[in-house]
Structures are given as structure tokens and as C-alpha cells.
Specification:
There is one protein chain. The protein has about 110 residues and is of the alpha+beta class. It has a 3-stranded antiparallel sheet, with no helix packed on it. It starts with a strand and ends with a helix.
Length: about 110
């Protein structure tokens, strides 16, 4: 798969999971600022991005291997509660208009 996809935040995240991410970001001097644990929106669509490639090596500190996605044009969307699944899954076109402001973007979504 290559192209545009929605980013779904899983419903479950423990405080330990959150702390580990905060510590990892601090270790790599990441400019990413996470919202407070209680402010994270979970269990729905939170963003959109373009999947450019899948690689087995990359120089980013975010790459853990053995494979990683090269993502471009990642951006937040208004939160939309939506039941997720593991991996990539289909979202009905009827739901897309709720998260994408520009109707042209909806028309070109895969």
C-alpha cells in the first residue's frame, strides 16, 4: 500500500506506556511535545498522512526495525471517535467527510 491513510489512536494506553514515550522523546532530544496523558484523544481518527515507502534501514532515531514506514505530509485532523483494528483497515467513505475539511481531499482519498 502507498498513498493517503487516516491515523487512528488506539483506545488503550497505560500511564506506563505514556511515560516510556516521554522518556524516549527526551533521550533523543525530540522536539515533539505530547499533550498531557489525560488530554490525549484515544479510540478514534486523529490525523492523516501519506505512506511513501516501507524500508528495512533508516537513519532516524524513530526507526526500530526490522521495517519502518516513511510517512510524509502528516497532519492532525479533528478527532472522530471510530472503532479501530490492528494494521490497516477500511474506513467507510461516509465517515471521511467528518474528518477531512477539503472535499477535494475526500475525493482523492484511496
Amino acid at each position: 500500500f502507498r498513498g493517503r491513510f487516516l491515523i487512528h489512536a488506539g483506545k488503550t494506553m497505560t500511564k506506563r506506556d505514556y511515560t516510556e514515550v516521554v522518556e524516549f522523546l527526551a533521550d533523543i532530544s525530540s522536539p515533539v511535545q505530547l499533550p498531557a496523558f489525560d488530554d490525549l484523544e484515544r479510540g478514534g481518527v486523529v490525523g492523516i498522512a501519506d505512506l511513501h515507502d516501507c524500508v528495512s534501514e533508516y537513519s532516524s532515531p524513530y526507526f526500530f526495525g526490522p521495517y519502518g514506514f516513511l510517512v510524509r505530509n502528516a497532519r492532525p485532523l479533528p478527532y472522530l471517535p471510530f472503532k479501530g483494528q490492528l494494521g490497516f483497515f477500511d474506513v467507510p467513505r461516509s465517515a471521511l467527510h467528518l474528518v477531512v475539511d477539503d472535499e477535494r481531499e475526500v475525493e482523492s482519498a484511496p
